[in-house]
Design a protein that fits this description.
The chain is mostly beta strands and about 130 residues long. It has one helix and eleven strands, in the order E-E-E-E-E-E-E-E-E-H-E-E.
Length: about 130
């Protein structure tokens, strides 16, 4: 059974930090790119970051670049999103997803967008709330 399980979401004050984890099972982790998406109330789900488990290439949406860092540990089948300098507008449910194209970070960087349709498996989400 394929599973992606996110954890680490919490309530934090503006300027604070959180680290989200995404632990995968049921598929070959190294054959996939891992993406992080978020969805705020009343808004569409947006892709914010992605990492290739083949070459470590990454993509960051402009709004989070310089504040968030994506990483991946193949030995633990786990990807992470370190979030620093959090802002109230970062409040959302955060999802991780796995996509079979290892070049997804490069593609997203070229087009400037990470598409939900490129991802095959999804986690259930974890809530991040940033208070002002």
């Amino acid at each position: 059974e394929v599973q992606l399980v996110e954890s680490g979401g919490d309530l934090v004050q503006a300027g604070g930090s959180l680290r989200l984890s995404c632990t995968a099972s049921g598929f070959t982790f190294d054959d996939y790119a891992i993406g992080w998406f978020r969805q705020a109330p009343g808004k569409e789900r947006e892709g914010i970051s992605c990492i290739s488990n083949s070459d470590g290439s990454t993509f960051y949406k402009d709004s989070i670049e310089g504040r968030f860092t994506i990483s991946s540990d193949s030995a633990k089948n786990t990807a992470y999103l370190q979030m620093n300098s959090l802002k109230p507008e970062d409040t959302a449910v955060y999802y991780c997803a796995a996509g079979p194209k290892l070049s997804l970070p490069t593609i997203a960087t070229y087009f400037g967008v990470l598409e939900t349709t490129d991802f095959e498996f999804w986690g259930q989400g974890t809530q991040v709330t940033v208070s002002s």
